[in-house]
Amino acid sequence: MLYRGPLSSCNYACPYCPFAKHTETAAEHAADARALARFSAWAETQPFSLSIFFTPWGEALVRPRYQAALTHLSHLPHIRQLAIQTNLSGSLRWLENAEKSKIGVWATYHPGEVARERFLTRCAELDTLGVRYSVGVVGKKGHFGDIETMRAALPGHVYLWINAFKVGDGYYSQADLTRLGAVDPLFEVNTRRYRVRGMPCNAGETVISVEGDGTARRCHFIERPIGNIYEQDVRDLLRPRPCTRSSCECHIGYVHLPALDAASVYGDGLLARLPDPTLWADAARLETYLARARNLRAN
Ligand code: SF4
Ligand code: SF4
């Protein structure tokens, strides 16, 4: 389950993001806190196992309420996994009290917003705590050097992913693709807009996206709600459906396409974008995955 509450503020000012330096009123924070508390209470009482991925509009992990929610949920037996997208700027002390084996951190490094050494210090803290994490960077042309330097500085066991900067065809030259592919072997999968209309997708069957008021959607990308988790049994909302969008280009969407079989690469690390560590020594498995992605129809 992907949870995205009303929070829409961030302490960073990334030029490619609408939430940069957006601040919220006390009333807006209170509304986000109420929504989070309601969702946590709902998750706590469900009679089935559940994994939750927090995908906030902005930075949530600098807020003690999100740290406390993750900590609390991590100790519940039926909560399988928790993950959250973060710029890693907040304190990580809360993790000391969490069930760390269940938590995956989807960290994004934003060159220009944070010193490399500071970000790396945070990564080292996660390693010391024994928390699994991946590190991502937006693949803007001006970031290429930062990406390579970050890759060289991170421990070898940490996956560095690159999100393609999707501003239209032709942004990347073949040389760019080769250069970034040398850093992130899975980069090319993220460079495409897959033509998905009519294709089976697990979004809406094994994974759903939920807003602060309980509105449930198949995924973050299809506006039409499928129900409300506070008004009906969520299991009644789940069923196979073909995709109704013309394209899907975001990792947190297309990884749910059965035709891609992303689980063959990510295993139980799918939620926090953590490939199975054995993948890199298994060239055949990696190439099979890349070939599957190439064979999906792309715009
Ligand atoms: S850290 Fe993330 S949410 Fe904050 S401004 Fe940058 S891209 Fe946006
Ligand atoms: S393919 Fe993408 S847009 Fe379509 S249902 Fe799946 S996640 Fe949503």
Could you provide a short overview of the structure?
InterPro entries: Aldolase_TIM, Radical_SAM_STM4011-like, rSAM_sf. The protein is of the alpha/beta class.
Secondary structure layout plus pairing:
Layout: E1 2-4, H1 26-44, E2 50-54, H2 64-74, E3 79-86, E4 103-108, H3 116-129, E5 132-139, H4 144-153, E6 160-164, H5 174-183, E7 194-195, E8 200-201, E9 209-211, E10 215-217, E11 225-228, E12 241-242, E13 247-248, H6 251-254, H7 263-266, H8 283-295
Parallel strand pairs: 1-2, 1-9, 2-3, 3-4, 4-5, 5-6
Antiparallel strand pairs: 7-13, 8-12, 9-10, 10-11
Overall 3D shape: globular
By CATH, the topology is: TIM Barrel
Give the cofactors and ligands.
Answer: iron/sulfur cluster
**Average pLDDT, all residues:** 95
User: How many structurally independent domains?
Assistant: 1
User: Ends: how far apart?
Assistant: 28 Å
Protein name: MoaA/NifB/PqqE/SkfB family radical SAM enzyme
Task: Please give a structural write-up.
- The structure is a single chain.
- The protein has 299 residues and is an alpha/beta fold.
- The protein has a single domain, classed as TIM Barrel (Alpha-Beta Barrel), CATH 3.20.20.
- Helices cover 28% and strands 18% of the residues.
- The protein has eight helices and 13 strands.
- The protein has helices at 26-44, 64-74, 116-129, 144-153, 174-183, 251-254, 263-266, 283-295, and strands at 2-4, 50-54, 79-86, 103-108, 132-139, 160-164, 194-195, 200-201, 209-211, 215-217, 225-228, 241-242, 247-248.
- The strands form three sheets. The chain has a nine-stranded mixed sheet.
- Helix 1 links the parallel strand 1 and strand 2.
- Helix 1 (26-44) packs parallel to helix 2.
- It is globular.
- The two termini are 28 Å apart.
- Bound molecules: iron/sulfur cluster (2 copies).
- The site of one iron/sulfur cluster has 14 residues, from helix 6.
